[in-house]
Amino acid sequence: MRITQALPELPYDKNALNPIITEETFDYHYGKHHATYVNNLSGLVKDTPLESASIEEIIQKGFAENNAPLFNNAAQHWNHSFFWHCLSPNGGKAPDGKIAEFITRDFGSFETFKNTFSETAVKLFGCGWAWLAQNEQGILEIVPMKDAHTPLTENKKPILTLDVWEHAYYIDYRNARPKFVEGFWEIVNWDFANQNLK
């Protein structure tokens, strides 16, 4: 998927994932948090050569130069834009197609994968992202990443992600992150995961 420097449209209505993720959460998570990353990034690249760069290029430059404001805002914008597509009102159920085959090949079974991914998301200390990514050999990996970090800086292809920053779930679940992670499996977008496989 192509992510630009603008705030993207959500791929569904803000109330489409209720009650797992409510409209109020989208108002804050998408309408305020994500929008702030986009606005901050716009200010950081204005009147610089990066103004016309891709988000991926900005992420790599910020990471390589240890430029925390640039990296954090670009990566959080990219991560959130990607995350919205990992969810679907028609999602959930068991995976099918290539993603199902790869999960069985690399984790032994869907249940093993689901339990390991859930445990990774629940146990990630503080804030960050639980990623399903494909390494350079094509093998699927579950990758916990702190703060704004993304598989893009590790030459891994993002397949799915779950945002476990507190702002992703606090309105709906307070501090019960495990309940939020449990709900993810009812709305996960396997079609999107299949599109991302290489």
TrEMBL record:
Q: Where does Mn(2+) bind?
A: 29, 80, 163, 167
Q: Keywords assigned by UniProt?
A: Iron, Metal-binding, Oxidoreductase
- Note the InterPro entries from the entry: Mn/Fe_SOD, Mn/Fe_SOD_BS, Mn/Fe_SOD_C, Mn/Fe_SOD_N, Mn/Fe_SOD_N_sf, SOD_C_sf
Q: What Gene3D superfamilies does UniProt report for this protein, alphabetically?
A: Fe,Mn superoxide dismutase (SOD) domain, Iron/manganese superoxide dismutase, C-terminal domain
EC id: 1.15.1.1
Coiled-coil residues are none
| Source species, domain of life | Bacteria
Please list the residue ranges annotated as the Manganese/iron superoxide dismutase N-terminal domain. Answer: 6-88
The segment(s) forming the Manganese/iron superoxide dismutase C-terminal domain are 95-196
For this protein, the record's SUPFAM superfamilies field holds:
Fe,Mn superoxide dismutase (SOD), C-terminal domain, Fe,Mn superoxide dismutase (SOD), N-terminal domain
Q: Which GO terms describe its molecular function?
A: metal ion binding; superoxide dismutase activity
Q: Which GO terms describe its cellular component?
A: cytoplasm
Give me the reactions it catalyses.
2 superoxide + 2 H(+) = H2O2 + O2
> What does the similarity note say?
Belongs to the iron/manganese superoxide dismutase family.
Instruction: Explain the purpose of this protein.
Output: Destroys radicals which are normally produced within the cells and which are toxic to biological systems.
Q: What is this protein called?
A: Superoxide dismutase
- Species source reads Sphingobacterium psychroaquaticum
